[in-house]
Design brief:
mainly beta; 7-stranded mixed sheet; 4-stranded antiparallel sheet; globular
């Protein structure tokens, strides 16, 4: 069955860094664009970053441009989100998504001193 398993979240101080991973299985990973979303308490889920199946074109929310980098390894069926210079407003549950069909369960990121 299809699985997307996120990991790498945690508690980090403002200005710190984290790298999220999303391990995929059960589908042809390289055929799917992958995206990271986040949802903070009381807010709607928002798109953070996306990457094509080939790892070529990427896109980012304005709020994370220059701080976050999305990448993928099709050999390892994994998509990554490198997050730097984290801010308290980055606190949210982070989810990966494959195409429009599949979602992971999420990993919590908390930025606080």
């Amino acid at each position: 069955q299809v699985q997307l398993v996120e990991s790498g979240g945690g508690l980090v101080q403002p200005g710190g860094s984290l790298r999220l991973s999303c391990l995929a299985s059960g589908f042809a990973f390289s055929n799917y664009a992958m995206r990271w979303y986040r949802q903070a308490p009381g807010k709607e889920r928002e798109l953070v970053a996306g990457i094509s199946g080939t790892g070529g074109p990427t896109n980012y929310a304005d709020s994370v441009k220059g701080r976050f980098t999305i990448s993928r390894s099709n050999a390892e069926n994994t998509v990554y989100l490198q997050m730097s210079n984290l801010k308290p407003e980055d606190t949210a549950m982070y989810y990966c998504r494959a195409g429009v069909e599949f979602w992971g369960q999420g990993t919590q990121v908390t930025v606080s001193s």
